[in-house]
Amino acid sequence: xxxxxxxxxxxxxxxxxxxxxxxxxxxxxxxxxxxxxxxxxxxxxxxxxxxxxxxxxxxxxxxxxxxxxxxxxxxxxxxxxxxxxxxxxxxxxxxxxxxxxxxxxxxxxxxxxxxxxxxxxxxxxxxxxxxxxxxxxxxxxxxxxxxx
Length: 148
What we know:
By secondary structure, the chain is an alpha/beta fold. Helices cover 32% and strands 17% of the residues.
């Protein structure tokens, strides 16, 4: 009584199909992982008195194409919430402007910032080759009501 194949036979064979019953679970877990691990950039809240404007225009650019530059009354400059010296603005803005041709530089400052600081910033931006520069301002609410 001889055994042909050693006496052991496989009862089931490996399936040729990829199991899809757990694919939805895996996709859901990946979705949760990316939602939890994503970090969004938040601008620091600054209590400032915005300069007033009689007319303004909304910037139609994506958030990543806007470079926010804050000028403090003492002359400190913050580029996207990182402090820089006034003389370093040119070296920081130029590579960003070369990389993104659609970059919009938004100058944000308190109403009480001395003009000499804003003027120095403008000269640094000119030297950096920044073409699209806007000033953030608060539109007077009385003018909005009159137009309606």
